[in-house]
C-alpha cells in the first residue's frame, strides 16, 4: 500500500500498516526521508509500533515499484491540489491489480475526499474519519497524543462497500481499529465541526484543548459548535440527538491534546482553516445560515496565513 505524506499522521499510518503489508511512503522532504531511512516509521504513546517502509520521493515512484492496491493521502489538506495533480496522470499506472488503486483521504476537514475525487477525475475515492492526534517528536518518531478508536472509513453511499470492508479489516488486523460505515458523511461533519470549533481558537490562544475549555475563550468554541450544527442540519445531515453535548464530551476526553493548527501557527506554516471553517462558511452561504463567529475566526487565522504567504514571497 502507498502512503503520501510523511508527517505525524502518515508516519503513524505507515508504521501500523507495515505490521502486516508492504508499505511505500512518499516523502518529498530530504531531511525527513533520511530520518525514515535511518529509524524507519515509528510511533509511540497510545499506539506503539514500528516498521520499515520503502521510502520514495515522488508519486510516480509508486508506479515504478510495481503499483499499489491503495493510496492513502496523509498530507495536510493544503497540499491536496498538488498531490492530485501528480496522481491524476498516473492513475492507470499506479494500480497493482485491475481495479486498483483506491485513494483514501486520511485527512481532516469536510471536503477533502470530494476534492480529491474532483481533482483526480476518478470516483474510486474513500474517506476516513480519524479519531486520533499525533505529532513528530525530536527524534522523528510519531507520538500519539490522542487516541479514541474506532476510526471510520466509507463514502456517502455503499459504492465500493467491499473495498471499505476490506480496508477496515486490514487496518484493524494491524492494530488500528477501523469500522466501515454505509454513510460516512455524518461522521465527517461531526469531526469537521469539532475541529473547526476547537482548533482555531486553541491556535489563536496558543493553548491545549483543556486550557481552551478552561479559558474565557470557551464561549467562542461553544458558538462555533452551535453554528456548525445549524449548517449541517440545513444541509440535511443527521447528527443524531444533542450533537453539541456529544462534541463537548469529545473535547473533555482530549484535554491534554494540542491541535495541529496550534503547531502550524507556532511554526509559521499555513493552517488548515480552508478545509475547516471556510468550508462551513461555504455551506452556510449555500443554505442561508448566518455564521458570524466562523467569519471572524476565519479572518483571524487568515491573517496568520497571509503572513506566511508574504514571507514566502519575500524569500522568493
Description:
- By secondary structure, the protein is of the alpha/beta class.
- The chain folds into two domains: 2-183, NAD(P)-binding Rossmann-like Domain (Rossmann fold, 3-Layer(aba) Sandwich), CATH 3.40.50.720; 186-315, N-(1-d-carboxylethyl)-l-norvaline Dehydrogenase, domain 2 (Orthogonal Bundle), CATH 1.10.1040.10.
- The chain has helices at 8-17, 30-39, 60-64, 80-87, 91-94, 112-120, 161-173, 185-205, 209-214, 218-234, 243-253, 260-267, 277-287, 292-315, and strands at 2-4, 24-26, 41-45, 49-51, 54-56, 70-73, 102-105, 125-129, 132-136, 142-147, 151-154, 178-181.
- Helix 1 links the parallel strand 1 (2-4) and strand 2 (24-26).
- Helix 8 packs across helix 12 and helix 10 (218-234) packs across helix 13 (277-287).
What would you call the structural class? alpha/beta
Main β sheet profile: 8 strands, mixed
Domain unit count: 2
Residue ranges: pLDDT <50 for 5 or more in a row? none
Portion in helices: 40-55%
The 3D shape can be described as globular
CATH architecture of the largest domain: 3-Layer(aba) Sandwich
CATH fold-level name of the largest domain: Rossmann fold
Determine the N-to-C terminus distance: 36 Å
The total beta strand count reads 12
- Rg over C-alpha atoms, rounded to the nearest angstrom: 19 Å
Amino acid at each position: 500500500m502507498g502512503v503520501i505524506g510523511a508527517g505525524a499522521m502518515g508516519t503513524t499510518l505507515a508504521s501500523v500498516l507495515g505490521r502486516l503489508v508492504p508499505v511505500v511512503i512518499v516523502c518529498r522532504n530530504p531531511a525527513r526521508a533520511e530520518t525514515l531511512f535511518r529509524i524507519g516509521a515509528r510511533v509511540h504513546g497510545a499506539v506503539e509500533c514500528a516498521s520499515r517502509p520503502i521510502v520514495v520521493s515522488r508519486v510516480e515512484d509508486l508506479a515504478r515499484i510495481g503499483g499499489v492496491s491503495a493510496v492513502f493521502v496523509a498530507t495536510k489538506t493544503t497540499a491536496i491540489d498538488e498531490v492530485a495533480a501528480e496522481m491524476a496522470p498516473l492513475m492507470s499506472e499506479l494500480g497493482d491489480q485491475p481495479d486498483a488503486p483506491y485513494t483514501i483521504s486520511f485527512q481532516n476537514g469536510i471536503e477533502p475526499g470530494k476534492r480529491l475525487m474532483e481533482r483526480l477525475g476518478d470516483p474510486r475515492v474513500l474517506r476516513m474519519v480519524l479519531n486520533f492526534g499525533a505529532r513528530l517528536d525530536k527524534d522523528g518518531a510519531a507520538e500519539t497524543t490522542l487516541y479514541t478508536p474506532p476510526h471510520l472509513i466509507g463514502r456517502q453511499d455503499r459504492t465500493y462497500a467491499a473495498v471499505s470492508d476490506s480496508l477496515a479489516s486490514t487496518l484493524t488486523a494491524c492494530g488500528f481499529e477501523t469500522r466501515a460505515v454505509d454513510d460516512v458523511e455524518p461522521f465527517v461533519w461531526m469531526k469537521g465541526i469539532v475541529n473547526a470549533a476547537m482548533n482555531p481558537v486553541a491556535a489563536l490562544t496558543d493553548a491545549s484543548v483543556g486550557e481552551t475549555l478552561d479559558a474565557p475563550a470557551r464561549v467562542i468554541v461553544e458558538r462555533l459548535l452551535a453554528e456548525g450544527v445549524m449548517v449541517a442540519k440545513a444541509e440535511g445531515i443527521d447528527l443524531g440527538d444533542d450533537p453539541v453535548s456529544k462534541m463537548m464530551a469529545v473535547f473533555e476526553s482530549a484535554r491534554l491534546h494540542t491541535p495541529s493548527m496550534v503547531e502550524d501557527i507556532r511554526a509559521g506554516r499555513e493552517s488548515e482553516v480552508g478545509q475547516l471553517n471556510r468550508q462551513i462558511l461555504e455551506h452556510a452561504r449555500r443554505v442561508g445560515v448566518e455564521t458570524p463567529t466562523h467569519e471572524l475566526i476565519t479572518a483571524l487565522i487568515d491573517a496568520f496565513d497571509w503572513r506566511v504567504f508574504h514571507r514566502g514571497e519575500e524569500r522568493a
